[in-house]
């Protein structure tokens, strides 16, 4: 069964709103950003998608022996 991704968590830093998202569906690996970075991400969303498509390589099988 596929692992569900954790929901993004709204927070606050020095009175400003933040959003925390998770990497590889893991609570251990996460990062937070504010409104300015969120707007920048949205303005470059197509570039980010293309970057992932061009660089996301399938995991290579582990070699035995």
Write out the strand line-up for the largest beta sheet, numbering strands in chain order. 1-2-3
Mean pLDDT: 91
Q: Can you tell me the overall shape?
A: flat
Class from secondary-structure proportions: alpha+beta
Q: Are there runs of 5+ residues with pLDDT below 50, and where? A: none
| Count of extended strands | 3
What distance separates the N and C termini? 29 Å
Strand portion, in percent?
25-35%
Radius of gyration: 16 Å
> Mind describing the biggest β-sheet?
3 strands, antiparallel
List the total number of helices. 2
SSE pattern, N- to C-terminal = EEEHH
Percent of residues in helical segments? 25-40%
Tell me the quaternary state.
single chain
Provide a descriptive summary of the structure in words.
The protein is of the alpha+beta class and 65 residues long. It has one domain (9-55). The protein contains 2 helices and 3 strands, in the order βββαα. Strands 1-2-3 form a 3-stranded antiparallel beta sheet. A hairpin with a 2-residue loop joins strand 1 (9-13) and strand 2. The longest helix has 11 residues, at 45-55. It is flat, with a radius of gyration of 16 Å. It starts with 8 loop residues before the first strand and ends in a 10-residue tail after the last helix. The model has no long low-confidence stretch (mean pLDDT 91).
